[in-house]
Amino acid sequence: MDELFRRIAKVGSAIFGSAWSFIGAITIVLVWGITGPLFHFSDTWQLVINTGTTIVTFLMVFLIQNTQNRDSKALHLKLDELLCAMKEARTGLVGLENLPDADLDELEQEFRHAAREEAHKEAKVTAKEEARATAKKTAQKELAEEGTAKPTPLKRSA
Prior knowledge:
The protein has two domains: about 1-70; about 95-145. Helices cover about 75% and strands about 0% of the residues. It is built from four helices and no strands.
């Protein structure tokens, strides 16, 4: 049953997520709007579009949710593979999407703290590199000026 639904959802998302489906939906709405005067804008005429859009929306929710769940699961598996492949990675993070919200919040705070510390370290390194570059340019400029300056002749005293 799950496999059948997966196949239907995959085909359905490819079909209903296309530009042609969008054009078809616009066409249906335009035809419905144009036929309003023919049916004297009756309650039945309005009920047709309301019922149709409600049914389509109801079914699309399940289709979209299935597609999102599959995409999310595939993405997590790919990230888990990368974590397992890296020597420095904390492999305990594999499957963390299954942790309770409180644990996820705690991990998020830990990562934010680590990111702030790393940004602070990078800012210090960048400042030091900029200071070195400025000092180097100044020294090169001074050397260049000394090399191009004409030596002043020594005055002899009489």
